[in-house]
């Protein structure tokens, strides 16, 4: 198999654009000429048929066929035969539970990490590509058997990362505080806060921030740091836990 290839997008829709409009050029250069069909996983939304229609329309406009896994009588077999996998956004708990219920965690890991097929995620689909879904923004509307996810990278991501609004008088918890609370637990991996419009491209042992907005990196026991598009995040792929104990 080849090296892992991942395109992890923060959000499916950016203000003023259509579904996946802001990253369609990234998708084309990521999937390239070799991939003809993409296997879509719509488990994060309740109306899977409508979701598959939206995704199919977009990918066909880019020149790719799309099969939705929910239309397959054997989801495991669909993953084994897939040329590329795209997991869309929605509720991360619902998505992860469905991946477990359909015995897809190990199958997807094997296809991506051993066979080297391209994996694309947006929002919840990006959450499940990481170590765990502990740093999702979603409500636990269903109960997956574990919060451990696909583990295609050895860190976590917080998609749709929001900065504190300095003008706000609302004193609610910021996203940064929630991530800090996560890092108060022992042995917690780095968390990359991906803003709307940002995405992470992983090719083998190289990880690069792409898109139009920056990202904020949280390491346990350290001050968060700010990063612009083009940043090399390859050091996050070294699974040495990077943390002070």
From TrEMBL:
<dbReference type="GO" id="GO:0005737">
    <property type="term" value="C:cytoplasm"/>
</dbReference>
<dbReference type="InterPro" id="IPR005320">
    <property type="entry name" value="Peptidase_S51"/>
</dbReference>
<dbReference type="GO" id="GO:0006508">
    <property type="term" value="P:proteolysis"/>
</dbReference>
<comment type="function">
    <text>Hydrolyzes dipeptides containing N-terminal aspartate residues.</text>
</comment>
<keyword id="KW-0720">Serine protease</keyword>
<protein>
    <recommendedName>
        <fullName>dipeptidase E</fullName>
        <ecNumber>3.4.13.21</ecNumber>
    </recommendedName>
</protein>
<keyword id="KW-0224">Dipeptidase</keyword>
<dbReference type="GO" id="GO:0016805">
    <property type="term" value="F:dipeptidase activity"/>
</dbReference>
<keyword id="KW-0645">Protease</keyword>
<dbReference type="GO" id="GO:0008236">
    <property type="term" value="F:serine-type peptidase activity"/>
</dbReference>
<keyword id="KW-0378">Hydrolase</keyword>
<dbReference type="InterPro" id="IPR029062">
    <property type="entry name" value="Class_I_gatase-like"/>
</dbReference>
<dbReference type="Pfam" id="PF03575">
    <property type="entry name" value="Peptidase_S51"/>
</dbReference>
<comment type="similarity">
    <text>Belongs to the peptidase S51 family.</text>
</comment>
<keyword id="KW-0963">Cytoplasm</keyword>
